[in-house]
Design goal:
By secondary structure, the protein is an alpha+beta fold. The protein has one domain (2-105). It has 4 helices and 3 strands. A hairpin with a 4-residue loop joins strand 2 and strand 3. The chain starts with a strand and ends with a helix. 8% of the residues are buried. The model is unreliable at 53-62 (pLDDT under 50).
Length: 106
């Protein structure tokens, strides 16, 4: 089953490294038939809304949705991310600031 991901541009390489694919027509990253959704959960804000049900419509859509949900394994919860105290520097989350660089030097 296809699941569309909400992936910021800065995290596209991480999604790709985990096996996500790019859909140029829909302009989004997606995964297909992944057994463990844990690595992708940060890019799946709403699992039901992210699932691409294809061209099914009407009652066929409901039947195919029920069948798809029955085949889908529930996502495995991961540990919450550890909170890192913010030093107050105006840097992007994926960039190091002067304070974090000082910690690595010691």
């Amino acid at each position: 089953m296809r699941i569309n991901l909400v992936t910021p541009f800065a995290e596209k390489d991480a999604a790709k490294a985990l096996g996500a694919r790019w859909d140029a027509a829909k302009k989004c990253w997606y995964i297909v038939d992944v057994d463990d959704l844990t690595p992708f959960m940060r890019w799946i804000p709403n699992l039901d809304a992210a699932q691409d049900m294809g061209a099914a419509t009407g009652s066929n859509h409901k039947a195919s949705h029920k069948a798809a949900v029955a085949k889908t394994k529930p996502p495995v919860a991961s540990k919450p991310a550890a909170e890192v105290p913010h030093c107050g520097c105006q840097v992007l989350p994926w960039e190091d600031c002067e304070h974090s660089l000082a910690k690595h030097r010691n």
